[in-house]
Protein: Ribokinase
Organism: Phyllobacterium zundukense
Amino acid sequence: MTSSPVVTVFGSLHYDIAVMGPARPRKGETVTGTSWHPKSGGKGGNQAVSSARTGVATAMIGAVADDDFGRFLIANLDRKNVDHTFVRRDAAQSTGMSVAIFDAEGDYGAVIVSGSNLTLGDGDVATAQDLLNRTTLLVLQSEVPDAANIAAARAVKQAGGRVLINAAPARPLSGELQSLIDIIVVNAIEAEMLAGVPVVETLDGALEAAKTLANVFPEVVVTAGGAGVAFASRDGDEILIAAMKVEVESTHGAGDEFIGVLAAEIAFGKTMNAALQKANMDAAKLVSTPEKDRV
Ligand SMILES: OC[C@H]1O[C@H](O)[C@H](O)[C@@H]1O
């Protein structure tokens, strides 16, 4: 009997505040904004919610503080059908936080304060061992310590599962972590840092970067913003998918939507081409949804 697929997201949870302004402030400038919207965030939390929405069993391993922000994040996971049994409440910390300031075009700049996310470690992996043993696909990001990602990835690989990393925000990955990755998803900036070559945001540029990174990782996805997505594998497979043309309201969290859906479709056993098509479509839908309508 084959068991049902499980996506486990090991990673970050942030309390997000999106501030809408006519422009992002320059050095020393105060800008009068039009509105602000609190919402659940953190790349890990966003990816878990997007995965669960497809119907695949999804669990989150993370850490929040024992404060109102942490309670808000856990309530959101609960409402969105993400199993949060292994989201730890750390009384000594503050919950991770992000503030993003948007301009009229929907572009933004953001600051994150990691707080409790930095406490993730071996203890969290040990506590969630049973879950990790039955995980089909583990999803990681770079908003928690490398050592914690390594411990989680090792546990899943030993049990026969696969590991996908969204290497965001851009930072170098240790050799040990690299060796545990099956699928890596990066944007142009992250690809540039990891591949060591300048990446232009075109489909051809993304494919070249994906092929370079496929010398290190078995399967590579490079997202190239408004241009689309490129895939390359160590076995020589290549896929190019053009971005859908939509009215851009906000690109915040679009990468997370893409990754959560991609992970779910892969866990369901879809082909990479089908998984990428669905992820691309759902991310386009999110991009055309205004911040105020995102719940
Ligand atoms: O990718 C968007 C996410 O990155 C940061 O982690 C924010 O919390 C936000 O939700």
User: Anything to note?
Assistant: The domain at 43-93+117-181+244-293 is CATH 3.40.1190.20 (UDP-N-acetylmuramoyl-L-alanine:D-glutamate ligase).
